[in-house]
Design brief:
elongated; 6 helices; Rossmann fold; single chain; 159 residues; mainly alpha; 2 domains; binds S-adenosylmethionine; two-stranded parallel ribbon
Length: 159
């Protein structure tokens, strides 16, 4: 993600936009008995990234098992679903009724949206900013040494 003008933090660096990149790795949904359910992380990410301050209504015209509606409800938004199959309408209604069971997955998804460091801070620390920064051999060795020390420290703490 790029900063705004003059290295200022751009709109895109607000926490809720933290995962707005082009490629998303999300596992397919296996626990819902609908032929093509979304993994709940998908609508959660889309809705959370776009709507803020609990404003807006989520409309899913092909609601299926109701995943998007459950995500909207757990995000505190109003929602509206349309579904042609009475069987899936029932399934969506059941999911909405017991949606609290799915809150943990929403929370885990939202955790990923936290911006811990800004682009500028990462750049200043020589950390990953989307492009590999050219460094000389000496800097490379220092980075490797630092990593080794950190991993030794964490394995020591685990004992
Ligand atoms: C790909 S599924 C959506 C799955 C949903 N995102 C979920 O997570 O469960 C598409 C759904 O659209 C419904 N559908 C198909 N044609 C429709 C129509 N004309 N109006 C409303 N629903 C329709 C199907 O019954 C099916 O459940």
């Amino acid at each position: 993600m790029k900063p705004g003008k003059n290295d200022a933090i751009g709109e895109e660096l607000q926490s809720r936009h933290a995962l707005l990149k082009s490629i998303w790795d999300i596992f397919p949904e296996k626990s819902i008995s609908h032929p093509a359910p979304f993994p709940i992380e998908l609508p959660t990410r889309c809705v959370y990234s776009i709507l803020s301050d609990n404003k807006g209504v989520v409309i899913d015209p092909y609601a299926g098992s109701g995943t998007t509606l459950v995500a909207a409800k757990l995000l505190g938004l109003d929602y509206f679903g349309i579904e042609i199959s009475p069987e899936y309408v029932k399934m969506a209604e059941e999911r909405l009724k017991y949606c609290e069971k799915e809150r943990i997955r929403i929370q885990m998804e939202l955790e990923k949206h936290k911006v811990i460091k800004t682009f500028k801070q990462r750049k200043e620390n020589g950390e990953w900013v989307g492009k590999f920064k050219k460094i000389d051999k000496e800097q490379q060795l220092t980075l490797i040494e630092n990593k080794m020390v950190k991993s030794q420290q964490s394995s020591f703490l685990e004992r």
